[in-house]
């Protein structure tokens, strides 16, 4: 998908902010957004989590979940072989049932992007066309503690290797210190580094690491800030910090993208990542998306699950629906 | 397919073993009623559920006589600790049969299963647990040492929370040593009758609780019965007035929980998404059949359009339909009569010039239904801003300053509840002080807890239920009228003196140690208990 260029990102920020995106202007804007009542938010999330999905709705939901997964391996011990395995699974999640849809993308470290691209071959491309994208984590993932030059180089490197999507982390330290302008500039700069020589751009997912932002008000402000600075997606977590994705946080981020859409007409994606392991949990997220921003948001360009172990549980549930029986973990592949 | 068409997931009715017909529950047994029996139906399908006995005046008299006997011979003489045991047992049985009770409640009332299962029934159990804990601690209820029970309580409850209202009435009455004759609403008697089975299961002594079913006449006979010492009523203000007239000039103590037209006040700095959820919960919970429903939305003018827009968006995701389906948010209106009232008042809103918006949803062919509705451009003089509609209809008004919000919120004959939405703590507290309502919720709405008192100002009634205050409605200080004596005074004195000397000394000891004196209170309390146990043994 073609992202917006730096200039337009800046323009949209200026239009919404009514001034230069410096600390003071951003602070006024972000702190002027209505607060979040934690009790109420969690209550609503619990309510959405209790919707009951069965039979035909469940079959639909399971396939939808698979098509929205960023199948992920982010270990220090990752090898080219591991990535090739991952790609194999992404293309054919369940060899016993060819009707199983492909996942949306594989998500790897920057140095393994090339391996993933090679392994995908002709199947590399837009998930809307039934192909699989390559997402790369960049910007000194997962801590984000490096100079901007390093972060930009990291990003450009992954884009050059063929990454379609860049998952960047924000500088939580700068955010918590109130240096909103700095966070804005970094996101905008990384967004610029996503641009390829032919003028197209990799899609930018901005990871807030909500577990380190702690309060819902912070999550809400960081979401707005990321969107203002040009993020195409907002993502909850790296998966390296607990708590990672939670339903209330995802609900809150969905409310932000809904509000941004009402304000500007633009659609921003949301990606909960980390900690979503079961189909049952994932279905709760689908319900939340459908009821907060609408069902048309349930497409790979607007919603993703960042997960590694979720897929197997979904496959087991899927097998159960077709055969009527539960099988064991050995009936799905391990990586 | 659309994901939001969630496949139907109705709760199974197999947990519920309904009888073909139910009698009156008097003196521990189900007996025939002498009035003409009536049917109870499911408001969602108009399907007949069971035939219910109708109690006439003679039946009510039998029930009151049984309650008096049980009071004199057993319940008033029993120690608080033993009464507590019965209440704990009832609470546990309610939990054990929770699913069955939830299904019965949703069938008979029309409320969504997720509300009966997740709100009503757990609260019913909580209420019995809470008052079970009070039964042996009445000396510490703030009414002085050794307060005494009143005698026979006649209780009349409404159809909106059939079992929860039963628990609000029966739990404190039994904990304080009173016996009860209760009349559930004629459209929703089922769970009260299943509760009667639970009382049998709990081995509660016969007559301590009797349940008489019937319509207004049965209730009137109960309230007017000369041997009833205490009347407790929850329902409409008009019936409340009749009751007040009936008991005027008698020795009966009365508590009334009546109507409401609560203001839900939203300031421009409110947590807006949660406020929208709170507005929805405030008025569309239980189809708006809530006396403390936030039916008047007072929203600050500067955010009026935004709030209304978000509210409409939110309402369009609400799902109306089969109350037994787990995915249902809005169930059926309880009766045709109530549906007609809601329709009439809403039409009045149109006629007065308010703007009606109704959520798009399919209305089932059978049963009684009313889609969630918002009226904007409502003026304070409109009937829909003043009269209790008791249905899923919200009237939206605006204000500009906190003072105006308070003035508009208080400008109602009612005063049961109110809600405030703001991020500013100081304003929240200041406003709460100025609002004339019994319950004020801040950044939430329609939350109930057995430890929190509930009751109204002005035409919303008098007396408090719930919490320590709820005990006061069923107790009198020992010193005052125990000597002068009302009906059954002699027995009451016997009941009271059963424990009094020992408990008084325990309380005195506790007070002394609280004052810093070094009194050996714990020892005395222990002695007290053994004395009381011995006495109880002797009485048997």
TrEMBL record, chain A:
Among Gene3D superfamilies, the record links this protein to:
Aldolase class I
Pfam families on file: DeoC
EC category: lyase
Identify the EC number(s).
4.1.2.4
Looking up InterPro entries in the UniProt record yields:
Aldolase_TIM, DeoC, DeoC/FbaB/LacD_aldolase
Sorted alphabetically, the Gene Ontology BP terms of this entry are: carbohydrate catabolic process; deoxyribonucleotide catabolic process
Q: Which reaction(s) does its UniProt entry say it catalyses?
A: 2-deoxy-D-ribose 5-phosphate = D-glyceraldehyde 3-phosphate + acetaldehyde
Give Gene Ontology CC terms: cytoplasm
Answer yes or no on keyword Glycosyltransferase: no
Tell me the GO molecular function terms: deoxyribose-phosphate aldolase activity
Q: Report the pathway entry.
A: Carbohydrate degradation; 2-deoxy-D-ribose 1-phosphate degradation; D-glyceraldehyde 3-phosphate and acetaldehyde from 2-deoxy-alpha-D-ribose 1-phosphate: step 2/2
Q: Which positions are tagged coiled coil?
A: none
State the source organism's domain of life.
Bacteria
Give a yes or no for keyword Transcription regulation in this entry.
Answer: no
* Keyword terms: Lyase, Schiff base
**Which family is this protein grouped under?**
Belongs to the DeoC/FbaB aldolase family. DeoC type 2 subfamily.
**The protein's name:** Deoxyribose-phosphate aldolase
Q: Which gene encodes it?
A: deoC
UniProtKB/TrEMBL annotation, chain B:
Q: Where is the composition biased (Basic residues)?
A: 523-540
SUPFAM superfamilies for the chain:
ALDH-like (SSF53720)
Q: Which UniProt keywords apply?
A: Oxidoreductase
* Signal peptide (UniProt feature, chain positions): none
Pfam families hit by this protein: Aldedh
PROSITE patterns tied to this protein: ALDEHYDE_DEHYDR_GLU
- Active site, per annotation: 257
The annotated region (Disordered) lies at: 480-540
In Gene Ontology terms, what is one molecular function of this protein? oxidoreductase activity, acting on the aldehyde or oxo group of donors, NAD or NADP as acceptor
User: Record's superkingdom?
Assistant: Bacteria
Start and end of every Aldehyde dehydrogenase domain?
Answer: 31-475
UniProt lists compositionally biased (Low complexity) regions at 491-520
> Belongs to which family?
Belongs to the aldehyde dehydrogenase family.
The name this protein goes by in its record:
Aldehyde dehydrogenase family protein
Which species expresses this protein natively? Agromyces protaetiae
């Amino acid at each position: 998908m073609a992202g917006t260029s730096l200039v337009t990102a800046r323009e949209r920020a200026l239009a919404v902010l009514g001034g230069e995106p410096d600390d003071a202007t951003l602070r006024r804007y972000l702190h002027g957004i209505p607060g979040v009542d934690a009790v109420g938010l969690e209550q609503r999330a619990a309510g959405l989590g209790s919707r009951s999905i069965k039979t035909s709705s469940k079959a639909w939901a399971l396939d939808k979940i698979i098509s929205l997964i960023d199948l992920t391996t982010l270990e220090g011990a990752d090898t080219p072989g591991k990535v090739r395995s991952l790609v194999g699974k992404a293309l054919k999640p369940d060899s016993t049932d060819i009707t199983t849809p492909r996942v949306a993308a594989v998500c790897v470290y920057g140095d393994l992007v090339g391996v993933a691209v090679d392994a995908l071959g002709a199947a590399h491309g837009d998930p809307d066309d039934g192909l699989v994208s390559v997402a790369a984590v960049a910007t000194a993932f997962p801590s984000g503690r490096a100079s901007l030059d390093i972060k930009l180089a990291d990003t450009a490197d992954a884009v050059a290797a063929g990454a379609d999507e860049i998952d960047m982390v924000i500088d939580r330290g700068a955010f918590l210190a109130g240096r909103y302008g700095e966070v804005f500039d970094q996101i905008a700069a990384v967004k610029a580094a996503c641009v390829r020589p032919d003028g197209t751009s990799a899609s930018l997912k901005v990871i807030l690491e909500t577990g380190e932002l702690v309060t819902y008000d912070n999550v809400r402000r960081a979401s707005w800030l990321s969107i203002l600075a040009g993020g195409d997606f907002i993502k909850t977590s790296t998966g390296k910090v607990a708590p990672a994705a939670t339903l209330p946080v995802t609900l809150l981020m969905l409310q932000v993208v809904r509000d941004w859409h009402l304000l500007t007409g633009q659609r921003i994606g949301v990606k909960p990542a980390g900690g979503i392991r079961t189909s049952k949990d994932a279905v709760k997220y689908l319900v939340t998306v459908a009821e907060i921003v609408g069902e048309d948001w349930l497409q790979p360009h607007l919603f993703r699950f960042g997960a590694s172990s979720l897929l197997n549980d979904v496959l087991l549930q899927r097998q159960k629906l077709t055969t009527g029986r539960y099988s064991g973990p050995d009936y799905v592949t391990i990586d | 397919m659309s994901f939001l068409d969630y496949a139907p997931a109705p709760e199974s009715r197999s947990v519920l073993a309904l009888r073909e017909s139910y009698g009156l529950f008097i003196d521990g047994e189900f007996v025939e009623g002498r009035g003409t029996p009536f049917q109870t139906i499911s408001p969602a399908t108009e399907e007949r559920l069971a035939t219910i006995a109708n109690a006439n005046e003679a039946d009510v008299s039998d029930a009151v006589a049984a309650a008096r006997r049980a009071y004199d011979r057993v319940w008033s003489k029993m120690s608080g600790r033993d009464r507590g045991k019965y209440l704990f047992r009832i609470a546990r049985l309610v939990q054990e049969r929770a699913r069955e009770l939830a299904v019965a409640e949703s069938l008979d009332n029309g409320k969504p299963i997720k509300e009966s299962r997740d709100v009503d029934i757990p609260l019913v159990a909580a209420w019995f647990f809470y008052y079970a804990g009070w039964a042996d601690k009445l000396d510490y209820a703030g009414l002085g040492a050794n307060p005494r029970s009143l005698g026979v309580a006649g209780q009349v409850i409404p159809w909106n929370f059939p079992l929860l209202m039963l628990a609000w009435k029966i739990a404190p009455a039994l904990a304080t040593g009173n016996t009860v004759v209760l009349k559930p609403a004629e459209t929703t008697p089922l769970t009260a009758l299943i509760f009667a089975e639970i009382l049998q299961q709990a081995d509660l002594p016969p007559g301590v609780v009797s349940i008489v079913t019937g319509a207004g006449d049965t209730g009137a006979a109960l309230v007017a019965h000369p041997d009833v010492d205490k009347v407790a009523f929850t329902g409409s203000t008009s019936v409340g007035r009749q009751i007040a007239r009936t008991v005027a000039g008698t020795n009966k103590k009365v508590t009334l929980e009546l109507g409401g037209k609560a203001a839900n006040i939203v300031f421009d700095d409110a947590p807006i998404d949660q406020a929208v959820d709170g507005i929805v919960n405030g008025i569309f919970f239980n189809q708006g059949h809530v006396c403390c429903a936030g039916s008047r939305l007072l929203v600050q003018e500067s955010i009026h359009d935004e709030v209304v827009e978000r509210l409409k968006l939110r309402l369009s995701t609400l799902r109306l339909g089969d109350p037994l389906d787990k995915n249902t948010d809005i169930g059926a209106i309880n009766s045709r009569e109530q549906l007609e009232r809601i329709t009439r008042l809403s039409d009045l809103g149109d006629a007065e010039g308010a703007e009606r918006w109704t959520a798009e949803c399919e209305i089932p062919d059978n049963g009684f239904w009313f889609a969630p509705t918002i009226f904007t451009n409502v003026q304070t003089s409109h009937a829909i801003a003043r009269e209790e509609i008791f249905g899923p209809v919200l009237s939206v008004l605006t204000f500009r300053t906190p003072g105006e919000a308070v003035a508009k919120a208080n400008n109602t004959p009612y005063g049961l509840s109110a809600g405030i939405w703001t991020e500013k703590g100081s304003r929240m507290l200041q406003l709460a002080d100025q609002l004339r309502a019994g319950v004020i919720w801040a950044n939430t709405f329609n939350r109930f807890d057995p430890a929190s008192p509930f009751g109204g100002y002005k035409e919303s009634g008098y007396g408090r239920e719930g919490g320590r205050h709820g005990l006061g409605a069923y107790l009198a200080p020992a010193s005052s009228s125990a000597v002068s004596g009302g009906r059954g005074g002699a027995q009451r004195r016997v009941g009271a003196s059963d424990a009094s000397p020992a408990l008084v000394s325990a309380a005195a000891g506790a007070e002394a140690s609280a004052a810093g004196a070094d009194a050996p209170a714990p020892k005395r309390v222990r002695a007290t208990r053994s004395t009381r146990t011995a006495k109880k043994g002797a009485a048997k």
